[in-house]
Design goal:
By secondary structure, the chain is α+β, with helices and mostly antiparallel strands. An 8-stranded antiparallel β-sheet has the order 11-12-13-14-21-18-17-16, with no helix packed on it. The longest helix is centred in the N-terminal third of the chain and has 24 residues. The chain is elongated and about 80 Å long. 50% of the residues are buried.
Length: 662
Amino acid sequence: MATGTAAVQAPPLLSAWGSSADASSLMDSLRGARDRLTIRPASRPASDAGWQPAAARPLSELRAQAEAEKGTLWPQPLVSHYARYFRDGNRTAYEGLVASRQQRLTRAVVMAALGGPAGDGWLDEVIDGAYLLCEQSSWSWAAHDDVFTRSRHVVPDRSRPYLDLGAGEVVAQLAWLDLVLGDALDGRAPGLRGRIRAEANQRVIRPFLDRLDWHWLGLDGDVHNWNPWIHSNIIVAALLLVEEPQLQAEVVARCIEGLDRFLASIPADGAIDEGFAYWWNGAGRALEGLALLEEASGGVLNPDLPVIRALVAFPHRMHLGHRWFLNVADGPARAHKGLPWGMLHRWAVRLGDSEAAAHAATFAAVEPEPNAAAGLGRVLTQLTSHAFRTSRTQLLPSWGTYLPSVQIMVARQTPGSSDGLTLAAKGGHNGEHHNHRDVGSVVVAVDGVPLLVDAGQPTYTAQTFGPDRYQIRAMQSAWHSVPAPFGLQQGTGAEFAATVLQEPTPEEPTLALGLGAAYGLGHAEQWIRTSLMNREQGSVVIDDRWNLPAHQTDGTPRTDGTPPPDGTHDVDITYLVAGTVSVGTDATATITPEGIPAAETTKGLHLRWKPATAVVLVDEWHLDDPLLSDIWGEKLTRLRFRMPADTRASGAFTLTVEATHD
């Protein structure tokens, strides 16, 4: 478990910074902080506004969209959109409009800051967008607001603002635009900056200081990605919108304490149980906040710590190839465009991690244009960075990697490359954040493209984080590449866990796991799964062995050999497949990447299995969710291998996976 009660250690920031992190010391070190930031006001001379020269990089897409929307009606989230979450669970109707509004404002800020004729309208566009945010009744996303649970109301309560991810994003956006365009705002719309500060104080600063019951603070030991995401945005607001030195120092000191709880929860190997995608909005947000603190304090708050080194290494350790990454929990298998790879590259270079630096540079080189969806702060930061004009070979960990805290192995057939086969195997437990009941699951890629897959994250609704979460197919063990002893699905909670029986090494990339506890069986070794990369043979082997005396509901063995009351007589082993599947008559099957968008290979996988008498059941999952279909195409396929009757209680099944030739 990468974050949570089990992993909490001594607070690294306070241990390193000591009294420098106290509010009294911060009052001195933060004096003049705005003038030390890399992002500078647009009114400064070109030689002093550090982000303007870098803005020569391509901005054609951003500019074209900004031009197209300028002068049109702004996206208008309505109370009916807000109420939909409480009525029918839909959260995208409201959040989509809010995101569109904020992305339009980000584009307008960039256009206004880059200069142009006074009458070109960009500054008025910014003024209108900023004022709309000030008038917006809630900065919180409806899915997070506690208004319904408190009062059964479905409209925001302005007297009790909810401080969540959405509020953090709005206040940081307003803070950055105030820094960059403040002088121009004073000339064009006197009073707007005062309104921004008043709203920031009422909706964010005071609720942050006055309440200690925000779940994302991590005071109960359960620390997740909200913690660094919100704290880092509040740091931006405190530095740029809070002008009273004592108050500013108090807010920043409280943020440092909060970030420290997150960093203290990170294990020594730097693993994030929420996976690669959530790294960017968890660990990545922490890195951004720490970099800002270092700039603002003139280097007094130096975050060069061992835990930071471990975090910086995580993304490239999870890389399969191209834009494909190992996705556990709620994450897509293909990396979003617009991720702040330049930020990661700067950290890797600073810390001397050449592999992470080369890996980040590769992605930064092919994504030179800022994407407004990343947020104004990340866009402006990207405009301060030099352009990565040449793509480099992605430098991957030589044999692969093993992260013991989350029991994840990534093993490569070709050391340091995505060529050939890549095997990812996961143990862990089902109490991890954004959990998918995926203990023991495997992913197999060929030339970096996964074909034995984890479906990933569907569109969020009220059900996603409610009591019926595991009725969603993408979250069920029944639709992951795991066993189903007696037809059982895995349980929910940290006790439903894997036991590591053999850890991988560079010489022997094999992960053996006892999975019995994941299904509530009496002993971990009642089901043993061994996943290995056989480089000499050019194959991946996944071997399952089981000994399943059925159990009473109280855990005592049955004597009649019947299955548990909530199970079946069948013992199945499931694999989830992307692409086109062809099952042969000789205990073999072929998978090709046909139908997968952006599949950067024509190679496929050849499967063969023992015993050949296992019955193969094929179920197609037709994807109507764009978050899934954009990754995998029209469908995913589930192969269920049903064991012969004489092996239900005790038996073995071996799947061998090889790459096909072009």
